[in-house]
Amino acid sequence: xxxxxxxxxxxxxxxxxxxxxxxxxxxxxxxxxxxxxxxxxxxxxxxxxxxxxxxxxxxxxxxxxxxxxxxxxxxxxxxxxxxxxxxxxxxxx
Length: 93
What we know:
There is one protein chain. The chain is of the alpha+beta class. Helices cover 26% and strands 45% of the residues. The protein starts with a helix and ends with a strand.
């Protein structure tokens, strides 16, 4: 019985720490790839509570001083639907 409780406790801990992350290409242009890389990040809680979130392409480009955007990627990390982080990654010159 003790081993069953321990097993369930360990599985519950792993479930709480589980997360999923996916990165998708959003856009690409004919501009050269470039050496600069900018990011902007926003976090939402419980899928709907988003406070002061700015994960825009414009902010990511401004953070790295990019004026000619080559590629745009969106990375989404989801921790059991409780904490969701959106990161926009922009490359260019």
